[in-house]
Design brief:
GO molecular function: xanthine phosphoribosyltransferase activity
Keywords: Cytoplasm, Glycosyltransferase, Purine salvage, Transferase
Family: Belongs to the purine/pyrimidine phosphoribosyltransferase family. Xpt subfamily.
Strand order of the largest sheet: 4-3-7-8-9-10
Order of helices and strands: HEEHEHEEEEHEHEE
CATH topology: Rossmann fold
Subunit structure: Homodimer.
Enzyme class: transferase
Number of strands: 10
Length: 191
């Protein structure tokens, strides 16, 4: 998606450890016009699927998923919670996820009442690095018995193995921008 790539080049930064900072427009402060275009693109890419729910993980995926949901006929957005809270009750789907940026393992949880075998679920998230969050979300969809439509990612870190791992597993993966190199000189995108 050319608009996204241009925005990454203009406003994105790289921190030590190849941490890509796009917090001025994607995952802290959100550019709603850009997010709307991202949502339209995901709807176009997955137009062949009868999406009934969009699943993401808190927190950065929520805004992306909510805006994209409008382009899928206002389907509900469900987000996996990273911590058990008092308002999360009933039976839960639970999967373990290893966080690259936090260097920790945690459980993600979704109430069973929000995803059922009657659903067709699309997973959306902001970044793909090693694929651990997506594998956890896919596990939750599989636990539910719902149809799994695929994964939509805004930015994939192409130098890490997450995309390759998921594609080898047969996961339909649509990344809007794949960055093969990110350093102090800028960004190199895969065509």
């Amino acid at each position: 998606m050319e608009l996204l790539k241009q925005r990454i080049m203009k406003d994105g930064h790289v921190k030590p450890g190849n941490i890509i900072k796009v917090d001025s427009f994607l995952n802290h402060q959100m550019d709603i016009e850009l997010m709307n275009e991202i949502g339209k693109e995901f709807a176009h890419l997955f137009a062949d699927q009868p999406i009934t729910k969009i699943l993401t993980i808190e927190a950065s995926g929520i805004g992306i998923a909510a805006i994209a949901a409008q382009h899928f006929g206002n389907v509900p957005v469900v987000f996996a919670k990273k911590t058990k809270s008092k308002n999360l009750d009933g039976e839960l789907y639970i999967s373990q996820v290893e966080s690259f940026t936090r260097n920790t393992v945690f459980d993600i949880q979704v109430s069973k009442k929000f995803i059922t075998e009657d659903d067709c679920v699309l997973i959306l998230d902001d970044f793909l690095a090693r694929g651990k969050a997506l594998l956890g979300l896919i596990d939750i969809v599989n636990q539910s018995g719902a149809k799994f439509a695929g994964c939509g990612i805004v930015i994939e870190k192409g130098w890490q193995d997450g995309g390759e791992v998921l594609r080898k597993k047969g996961v339909r993966l649509e990344s809007l921008a794949i960055i093969d190199k990110a350093d102090e000189t800028g960004f190199t995108f895969r065509n």
